[in-house]
């Protein structure tokens, strides 16, 4: 497919897609969203842009191999165990703390959020790996 | 104690951090460390004497009532001292011996781990824990035998030893579980308290047999002895350490450990004595005709292990005492001889006895060491071996049953031992030198240090045997719970035992002279042997293994045929069958469901979904099929939305979109649907799908009416915000309440992705 409209649109959609994916992860704890949805959204953006250009081109533009995203995701998920291990709580108990900033208001950070990012990266990496491998195989 | 064990592990791992350049110097510090441990344990000796035992217990799996328990008592002390002391000597020996080989770091890694796990084995009084160390020693023995892994023979030997000892290990585990189920504990102290309960239980006999199989495989008792000669493929330090002084004695150790628990019954006495005596005889008999120096030693080791086993079977105080003394006797002379064999093969390049000769001129010190050790092996005064043999004869005289038969067998076996000792001495060290040692290598001089010390001990302790009593006394008291005083003397006075010793020595000498004078005797003997032992155990083992492998190959090809369609059919049919059975058993087809009308847009949606499914099945165009499937998915996500499952709906929509895009990307290059399946296959597939679909529909409908336990979802809803600070229950379940599941899922996803990646890239 070689549509100029689609190609230019992806450029602008990039910000929208990726920020939306991030927001989906962060707000996931309280509202619909979460790491899985976020990861799929991010992957969706790359799939769209590879429709607009070509898979090979996108693959070249993407500096990081999808395998590394998978590794990063699993690492995040594992690291999210650490707080509960260190504090002696049952494994994977969510540990939260709140940052009180005057600008945006209260921000809650916790190990489940890190875990969710782990899910995010893994899902994105897996999807991309599927995509690249399958399209490469032709 | 535990600190020492941990130190072994840490140091072993740390070996890999040492740069290549320095790696040649590894063994000296390690040997020194072993010596320090040896001294440490020696200093604990008086404690063991007075306090009986030092027990360290750590909580391990509390809800199973399992504690890690390390006990230093008289019995473990003997073995601990042997392991650390011989370990010290072996490391010094290996420093020179292993210099010219590659991969020495790996070697020391294994060897150090072995020392540690052997220590762990003898210190354990929790039997589950003991089993773990037991298996560790088997595995490390496997790794060490196969150290020269470029040689096929070494690999085979290693595999064989692992197979045999691993089989024994499993038997031991069964026995541990059996006894554990009798007394409901895995602690040695509990077993000891309830020894009479165990002995009167109907499970006693099977447990005993399994324990003994474990012990006999480890200690190379007949008919499991065949792996030990093969294990001589290992580097010589390993043969000296594992396969003569320590690992093969693990079985003897367990015999001694379990003696108060399982011993003293008729079954124990008969089986252990019989197998031990048989092994003793077979080992010494077969050793005579061997031509490889190390193989001679291997067979005499088997014989010695047989003696030890037999002594625990005779089941008297004297026999146990004899066994404990003989443990030292054998460790000293056999390790020394192994090291000497290694030294000789380094110097001359061969271990075959017919090629050796007249080495006395080249290595006078080697000759002295060999002389002392071999005399000790033959049981000639004033060596320690003499005392050991005297005690054994005494124990046999004292045996409450079969005394005369045992004495006869013992004398026969010892005659062979004496003959072998003299044969080795004369053929290797005396007579004409057949191989010229090209350059008189002084760099191997240090190899004589360790066997020298051992030989010195064989002689020195023979003259002053009382130095061994503080070590042996506590062990005897542990095995035969009581308080005994023992005395060891070189000179027992002139009695029938001494007479027996003299007869043995004379007969052995006679046999040696015959064998030495008439060379043809050995050849004839060999021929007879090959007739009698035409069924070589090793051959049987490997043939059986080949059969087994080809059988499992056929089996695998039958089940794992590689046709994806048949896999799927099998899975679906089997699942359907199970579901039908369950539905039939629970009268599950009766669904008391009342259909209530949903709003028209939902009903309409259902119709659209059904239509698109129909379309996707019968479409001729791949793009149409994909689109129709997408319509199904989107429709379902709308239904999710109707039931306010927002997360599910979003996920479903995104997944559908991704799938369509990916399918289009991947499949647009494919041709139109071709009909490759025959009519029959189509009908078959259709029937299978219809059956499965129908059953799944029934199950789904059933699921609505079944009352689930609502407490869980209620709990999640109630505590989602209170405990996990999240308002989105689905997400909280995913990342907090059930985070471990999610972790598993993403791991599976990753593995699947990597699988796709590697499979598809392979075909390039």
- The chain-level structural class of chain A is mainly alpha
Beta-strand share of residues of chain B:
under 5%
Going across the major beta sheet of chain B, what is the strand order? 1-2
H and E string of chain A: HHHHHEEH
Main sheet makeup of chain B? 2 strands, antiparallel
The total count of strands of chain A amounts to: 2
Structural class estimated from helices and strands of chain B: mainly alpha
Describe the overall structure:
Chain A is mainly alpha-helical. Chain A has helices at residues 4-27, 35-52, 55-61, 66-79, 82-86, 111-136; strands at 96-101, 105-110. Chain A has one domain. Chain A has six helices and two strands. In chain A, strand 1 and strand 2 (105-110) form a beta hairpin. The two termini of chain A are 16 Å apart. The mean pLDDT of chain A is 79. With 764 residues, chain B is mainly alpha-helical. Chain B has helices at residues 2-14, 27-43, 45-51, 74-97, 104-123, 127-145, 152-183, 188-193, 195-200, 204-218, 227-230, 236-245, 250-262, 266-287, 293-314, 317-348, 364-378, 384-398, 403-429, 449-463, 469-479, 496-517, 519-532, 537-559, 564-585, 600-618, 622-642, 646-667, 679-705, 711-724, 729-737, 739-762; strands at residues 53-61, 66-73. A two-stranded antiparallel ribbon of chain B has the order 1-2. In chain B, helix 4 (74-97) crosses helix 21 (469-479). Chain B starts with a helix and ends with a helix. The relative contact order of chain B is 0.06. The mean pLDDT of chain B is 82. The chains are: A mainly alpha (138), B mainly alpha (764). The interface between A and B is large, with 53 and 40 residues.
What are its keywords?
heterodimer, A: 138 residues, mainly alpha, two-stranded antiparallel ribbon, 68% helix, B: 764 residues, 32 helices, 2 strands, 2% strand, MnhB (chain A), cell membrane (chain A), transmembrane (chain A), CPA3_antiporter_subunitB (chain A)
């Amino acid at each position: 497919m070689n549509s100029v409209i689609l190609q230019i649109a992806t450029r602008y959609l990039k910000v929208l897609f990726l920020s939306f994916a991030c927001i989906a992860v962060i707000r996931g704890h309280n509202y619909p969203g979460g790491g899985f949805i976020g990861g799929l959204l991010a992957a969706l953006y790359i799939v769209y842009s590879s429709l607009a250009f070509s898979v090979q081109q996108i693959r070249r533009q993407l500096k990081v191999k999808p395998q590394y995203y998978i590794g990063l995701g699993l690492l995040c998920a594992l690291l999210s165990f650490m707080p509960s291990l260190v504090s002696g709580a049952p494994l994977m108990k969510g540990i939260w703390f709140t940052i009180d900033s005057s600008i945006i208001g209260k921000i809650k950070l916790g190990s489940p959020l890190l875990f969710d990012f782990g899910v995010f990266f893994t899902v994105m990496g897996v999807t991309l790996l599927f995509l690249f491998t399958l399209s490469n195989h032709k | 104690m535990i600190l020492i064990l941990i130190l072994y592990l840490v140091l072993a791992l740390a070996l890999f951090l040492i740069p290549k350049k320095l790696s040649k110097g590894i063994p000296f510090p390690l040997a020194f460390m072993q010596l320090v441990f040896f001294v440490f344990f020696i200093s604990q000796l008086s404690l063991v004497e007075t306090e009986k035992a030092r027990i360290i217990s750590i909580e391990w799996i509390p809800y199973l009532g399992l504690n890690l328990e390390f006990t230093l008592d008289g019995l473990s002390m003997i073995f601990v001292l042997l392991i650390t002391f011989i370990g010290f000597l072996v490391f010094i020996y290996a420093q020179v011996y292993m210099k010219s080989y590659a991969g020495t770091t790996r070697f020391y890694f294994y060897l150090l781990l072995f020392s540690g796990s052997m220590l762990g084995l003898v210190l354990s009084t929790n039997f589950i824990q003991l089993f773990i160390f037991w298996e560790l020693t088997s595995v490390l023995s496997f790794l060490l035998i196969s150290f020269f892994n470029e040689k096929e023979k070494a690999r085979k030997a290693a595999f064989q030893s692992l197979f045999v000892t691993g089989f024994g290990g499993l038997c031991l585990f069964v026995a541990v579980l059996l006894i554990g189920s009798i007394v409901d504990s895995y602690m040695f102290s509990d077993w000891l308290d309830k020894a009479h309960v165990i002995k009167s239980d109907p499970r006693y006999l099977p447990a005993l047999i399994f324990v003994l199989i474990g012990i006999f495989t480890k200690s190379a008792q007949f008919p499991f002895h065949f792996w030990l000669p093969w294990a001589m493929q290992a580097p010589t330090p390993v043969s000296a350490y594992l396969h003569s002084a320590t690992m093969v004695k693990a079985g003897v150790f367990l015999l001694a450990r379990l003696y108060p628990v399982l011993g003293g019954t008729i079954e124990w006495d008969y089986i252990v004595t019989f197998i031990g005596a048989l092994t003793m005889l077979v080992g010494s008999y077969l050793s005579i005709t061997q031509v490889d120096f190390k193989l001679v030693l291997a067979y005499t080791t088997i014989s010695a292990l047989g003696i030890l086993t037999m002594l625990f079977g005779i089941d008297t105080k004297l026999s146990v005492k004899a066994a404990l003394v003989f443990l030292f006797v054998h460790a000293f002379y056999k390790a020394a001889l192994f090291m000497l064999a290694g030294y000789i093969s380094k110097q001359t390049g061969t271990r075959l006895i017919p090629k050796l000769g007249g080495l006395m001129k080249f290595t006078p010190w080697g000759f002295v060491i060999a002389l002392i050790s071999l005399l000790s092996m033959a049981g000639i005064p004033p060596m320690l071996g003499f005392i050991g043999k005297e005690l054994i004869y005494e124990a046999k005289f004292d045996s409450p049953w079969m005394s005369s038969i045992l004495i006869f067998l013992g004398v026969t076996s010892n005659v062979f031992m004496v003959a072998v000792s003299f044969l080795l001495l004369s053929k290797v060290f005396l007579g004409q030198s057949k191989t010229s040692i090209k350059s008189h290598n002084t760099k191997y001089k240090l190899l004589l240090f360790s066997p020298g010390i051992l030989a010195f001990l064989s002689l020195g302790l023979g003259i002053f045997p009382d130095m061994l009593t503080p070590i042996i006394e506590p062990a005897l008291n542990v095995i035969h719970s009581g308080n005994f005083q023992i005395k060891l003397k070189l000179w027992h006075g002139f009695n029938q035992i001494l007479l027996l010793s003299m007869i043995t020595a004379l007969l052995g000498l006679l046999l040696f002279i015959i064998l030495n004078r008439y060379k043809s005797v050995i050849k004839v003997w060999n021929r007879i042997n090959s007739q009698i032992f035409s069924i070589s155990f090793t051959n049987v083992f490997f043939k059986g293994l080949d059969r087994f492998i080809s059988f499992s190959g056929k089996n695998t090809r039958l089940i794992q045929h590689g046709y994806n369609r048949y896999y799927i059919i099998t899975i679906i049919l089997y699942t359907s069958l199970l579901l039908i059975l369950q539905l039939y058993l629970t009268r599950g087809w009766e669904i008391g469901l009342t259909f209530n009308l949903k709003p028209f847009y939902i009903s309409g949606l259902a119709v659209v979904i059904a239509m698109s499914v129909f379309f996707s099945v019968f479409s001729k165009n791949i793009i149409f099929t994909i689109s129709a499937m997408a319509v199904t998915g989107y429709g379902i996500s709308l239904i999710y939305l109707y039931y306010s499952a927002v997360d599910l709906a979003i996920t479903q929509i995104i997944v559908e979109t991704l799938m369509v895009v990916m399918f289009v990307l991947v499949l647009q290059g494919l041709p139109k649907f071709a009909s490759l399946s025959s009519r029959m296959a189509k009908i078959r597939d259709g029937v299978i799908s219809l059956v499965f679909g129908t059953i799944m529909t029934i199950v789904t409908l059933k699921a609505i009416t079944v009352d689930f336990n609502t407490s869980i979802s209620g709990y999640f809803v109630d505590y989602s915000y209170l405990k996990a600070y999240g308002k989105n229950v689905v997400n909280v379940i995913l990342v907090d309440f059930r985070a471990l599941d999610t972790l598993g899922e993403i791991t599976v996803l990753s593995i699947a992705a990597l699988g796709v990646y590697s499979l598809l890239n392979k075909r390039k």
